[in-house]
Every structure is written in C-alpha cells, then in structure tokens.
C-alpha cells in the first residue's frame, strides 16, 4: 500500500500525532511519501519511514506554482492508494487526481470548505468537527477517526536536571505557546499554590508573555520552561499532575499523552475534553478561564491521593479503550482501500 501525505504544520500536538501515525503505518508495511515544511524539528522522526519532499508552499514563492504540478506528476507516476492532506493549508495542495481516494484530516473546526475542493472524504478527529462541517455545507464523505499516542510507560527524568526538588508537587502542561493554550492563566493558578512547581514544554510567540507573567507574580523560581521536546514522555512521567487549560481544544492530544503515563489530568471544558472526559472518573473538568477553579482542582489532587490515583487509572483505561493505535491505524488502512 502507498500513501502520500501533505503536511505543513509546525510543532505541536498535531505534529506528534502525525509522527505517531507515520510510524504506525510503516509498521503495517505502508510505503509513504510526505511533503512537509523544511527544517521541522520532527523531520528526523519520520525520515526513516517516509520519503520526504520539503517546501514552504508560500503564496509568493515559485513553489506555490511548481509544487502542485510536482505532486500531480508524483501521483500519476507512483499510483498511490491514498492522498492524505493534513488540515486546511495542505488541502490546497491536493491534486485533482482520479486514481485513488483523497482524504483531508481535520483536527479543528474549518470556516471555509473551499480548501477541500479536491477532497473526497474529510476525516474529523472528533464527532463535533464532523457535525460542524456538515452544518456549513459539506456534502461528501465524513469519517470520525480520533488520535492515539504511544502507550508505553517510560522512566521519568531526574527532577534535579530541571532544578526541581524531590518531593514537591509538580504540575505540567505542554503545547504551542499561543494565547488559546492559556499558559499564562495556568501560571496564575499555580502561583496561588505555595510550593507547587510548574513545568511548561513547548515553544511559540506567547512564551515571553508567559515568562513575564511568572516574573510579575514572583514565581519565576517555581516555573520551568522546557522548550520543544521531541519526546515529552519522561517529563510527563516525572510530574504529578497534568493540566490542559486551553480555551479552545478540538481534541487534546496532550491529555492522551498524560493518560499514557498514568497521570491525573485537570482540563478546561473545551470541545474535545468534554467529549471524552468524565469529571471525577478520568479527570477533573474546570470551566474555561476559571483561574481559581484550576487552582482548586490542582489542590484537590495534591491533597487527595486516592482521588488522584483513581482518575489516573480511569484515564489510562479510557486511553486503551478509545484511543488505541490498533483501532486508529486499522481505520485508516480500511479508508485507504476505498475507491473514489
């Protein structure tokens, strides 16, 4: 089986899932080609499993004209079983090729369906996104296939490497530093809890604002900025509580990663988490932008070890039942076999 991916993402949860899926398909014997941006930090993670074509596909570059012709020629020459674009920008590159199924995967709510003029099926990673595209006029195929993550438990990093004492409560979050991730709000929530440390993994334009907020609150000594990490699992494994405070989160890959390491999760009541989380069973849910609510939920888990253990195990069970590699990879393989 042959699949050609078009992916112009940067660094974040969606990109980690892309890496996971490329690996899973490779393990199942799928031959893959991927068109990606140059110099991605995760390039090395897919290079052994996919032939790579690198382009920024910018509007004011020669590639904006040449790349569409190139991918059409590649499709005609190699006759893949599926063409697979990731999100809206990459879907502009989808050629009007008739020889295989053409899939666009959505991890967020699109506002304009014109990106998908050459797409046969939209794969939505939550039911809510599927309902949304139907509501705004999509009449072709829709499939809901969610994400999975690596479920292996790993050894935690040494807290000393992050200048964090043993025995103190550690809260962790991760993602792109953009306003909707609400890392500044989480910093404020942790600032209300004396002695609690906060680890933030990721990078992006909002980082300096979050650093400034930590300084203004006088908690710089308790906040650690980890930067972009190809493998976040050892950091999650070393933390005590994982928090996802986003104001908008269509799914929440990072929650699945925390569940894989059997960590109790606190999440905002954003779109994805309210679909798959059950308050008090596999996580604690807090209203969006409720700083005090996040502080109280974190404090509750610190003070009630039995509750923390129970919801951590509930998360692990939900992960294995609903978000397994086997179920997700097999769903994609079946989709690749369809005729346009």
Q: Could you explain the architecture of this structure?
A:
It is a single chain. By secondary structure, this protein is of the alpha/beta class. The protein has 2 domains: 160 residues, Rossmann fold (3-Layer(aba) Sandwich); 164 residues, Rossmann fold (3-Layer(aba) Sandwich). 39% of the residues lie in helices and 18% in strands. A 7-stranded parallel sheet has the order 3-2-1-4-5-6-7. Strands 10-9-8-11-12-13 form a 6-stranded parallel sheet, with helices on both faces. Helix 6 runs parallel beside helix 7, helix 6 packs across helix 11 and helix 9 packs across helix 12.
What Rg is obtained from the alpha carbons, in whole angstroms?
A: 21 Å
C-alpha end-to-end distance: 16 Å
Strand portion: 15-25%
Shape: elongated
- Mean pLDDT, as a whole number? 95
Q: What is the number of helices?
A: 13
Low-confidence stretches: none
């Amino acid at each position: 089986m042959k699949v050609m991916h078009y992916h112009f993402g940067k660094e974040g949860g969606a990109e980690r899932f892309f890496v996971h899926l490329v690996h899973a398909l490779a393990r199942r014997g799928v031959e893959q080609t991927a068109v990606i941006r140059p110099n991605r930090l995760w390039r090395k993670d897919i290079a052994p499993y996919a032939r790579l074509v690198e382009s920024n596909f910018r509007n004011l570059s020669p590639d904006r004209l040449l790349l569409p012709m190139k991918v059409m020629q590649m499709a005609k020459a190699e006759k893949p079983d599926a063409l697979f674009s990731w999100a809206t920008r990459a879907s502009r590159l989808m050629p009007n090729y008739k020889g295989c199924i053409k899939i666009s995967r959505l991890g967020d709510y699109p506002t304009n369906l014109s990106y998908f003029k050459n797409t046969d099926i939209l794969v939505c990673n939550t039911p809510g996104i599927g309902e949304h595209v139907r509501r705004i006029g999509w009449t072709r195929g829709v499939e809901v296939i969610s994400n999975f993550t690596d479920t292996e438990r790993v050894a935690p990093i040494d807290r000393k490497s992050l200048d964090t004492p043993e025995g103190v409560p550690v809260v962790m979050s991760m993602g792109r530093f953009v306003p909707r991730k609400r890392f500044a709000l989480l910093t404020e929530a942790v600032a209300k809890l004396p002695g609690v440390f906060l680890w933030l993994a990721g990078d992006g334009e909002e980082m300096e604002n979050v650093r400034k907020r930590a300084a203004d609150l006088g908690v710089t000594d308790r906040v650690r900025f980890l930067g972009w990490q190809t493998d976040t699992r050892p950091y999650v494994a070393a933390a005590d509580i994982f928090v996802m405070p986003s104001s908008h989160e269509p799914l929440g890959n990072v929650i699945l990663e925390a569940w894989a390491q059997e960590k109790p999760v606190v999440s905002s009541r954003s779109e994805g988490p309210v679909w798959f989380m059950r308050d008090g069973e596999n996580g604690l849910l807090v209203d969006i932008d409720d700083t005090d609510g996040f502080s109280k939920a974190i404090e509750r888990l610190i003070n009630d070890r039995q509750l923390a253990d129970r919801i951590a195990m509930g998360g692990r069970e939900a992960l294995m039942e609903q978000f397994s590699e086997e179920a997700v990879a097999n769903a994609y393989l079946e989709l690749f076999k369809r005729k346009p």
